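User: Sequence recovery, please. Input:
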């Protein structure tokens, strides 16, 4: 098999057939064989039903892995990589925001350039809201400063790579998967191309601001331990400040004779220190929580049904 298209689907019932048709027309006359690896991420709508119907009717080689519940897109990608048999592997969304024609170009690029192992598309952000753009920029600046990996700003999961890259990614069995970081961590020479995301064909995006914030925190915690260092620095800083203040208080008592420092000062200090302590406990907690999750060694996903996958 030359190419595997890995498609995570969560509540994409209306898009399945349209997506399949778009792929078939994009790859018409490409001269190599390809397969569709659909991962149904515990959809609550008719996604699985439509996938099964398509599986019976299509002539395109196709696999379906159906999760027992919603495990998230990252788990879907992981399952797709495990079951894909292509020499090249492409990650693409089911909602037709990413045109399959681009995958064809990506494969052509890799065929021509032996020194590259991966082609990643990054989104042309014209048209995105300024506020979201600003937060995204902050996130990328922060994670690139804090962690050892270097993320390309705006680079998405929309990418095509060689089997060697997929094998490397599968060696990372961590439970909390942050694929942007994982792609950067495994390395390999990557070619970046801009692309314009289309409107969603049907359905709604599964992302909102709160989810994006949590995703950003997951990314930073997963790829850097420097926030822990921040806690240490904060501790040292407040300790030093309190020593200085102690000296001030003693001198005031000895020289001026003031006994009781202001009520406001005490309240402010209590609140400030309390806040800082909670922040530090929170940071430590994030890491302890992750070690706990990882130590349970639970599988990244559970599949209740598979079609077309020979085991
Ligand atoms: N997706 C998934 N599991 C989830 C959420 C999303 O498999 O829990 C899939 C979804 O079906 C789609 C892709 O991931 O194919 C991207 O999701 P979405 O379109 O909601 O994200 P956006 O394009 O808005 O960033
Ligand atoms: Mg989308």
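Assistant: Recovered sequence (311 residues):
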């Amino acid at each position: 098999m030359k190419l595997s298209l890995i498609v995570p689907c969560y509540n994409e019932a209306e898009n399945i057939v349209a997506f399949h048709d778009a792929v078939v027309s994009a790859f018409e006359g490409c001269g190599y064989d390809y397969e569709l690896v659909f991962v149904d991420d515990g959809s609550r709508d008719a996604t699985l039903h439509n996938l099964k119907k398509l599986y019976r009717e299509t002539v395109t080689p196709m696999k379906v892995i159906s999760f027992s519940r919603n495990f998230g897109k990252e788990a879907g990608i992981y399952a797709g990589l495990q079951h894909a048999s292509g020499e090249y592997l492409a990650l693409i969304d089911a909602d037709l925001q990413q045109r399959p024609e681009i995958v064809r170009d990506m494969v052509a690029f890799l065929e021509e350039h032996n020194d590259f192992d991966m082609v990643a598309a990054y989104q042309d952000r014209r048209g995105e809201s300024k506020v979201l753009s600003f937060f995204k920029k902050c996130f990328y600046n922060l994670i690139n400063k804090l962690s050892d990996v270097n993320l390309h700003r705006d680079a998405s999961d929309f990418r095509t790579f060689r089997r060697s890259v997929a094998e490397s990614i599968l060696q990372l069995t961590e439970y909390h998967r942050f694929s942007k970081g994982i792609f950067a961590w495994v390395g390999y020479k990557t070619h970046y191309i801009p692309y314009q995301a289309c409107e969603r064909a049907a359905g709604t995006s599964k992302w909102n601001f709160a989810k994006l914030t949590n995703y950003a925190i997951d990314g930073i915690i997963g790829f850097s331990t420097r926030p822990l260092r921040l806690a240490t620095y904060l501790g040292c800083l407040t300790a030093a400040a309190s020593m200085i203040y102690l000296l001030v208080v003693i001198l005031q008592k000895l020289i001026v004779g003031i006994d009781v420092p202001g009520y406001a000062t005490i309240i402010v200090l209590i609140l400030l220190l309390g806040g800082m302590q909670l922040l530090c406990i929170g940071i430590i907690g994030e890491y302890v929580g992750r070690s706990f999750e990882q130590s349970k060694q639970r599988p990244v996903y559970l599949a209740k049904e598979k079609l077309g996958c020979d085991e």
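The pocket of uridine-5'-diphosphate (ligand 1) is lined by residues 8-10, 12, 41, 70, 72-73, 76, 93-95, 97, 205-207 (CB under 6 Å).
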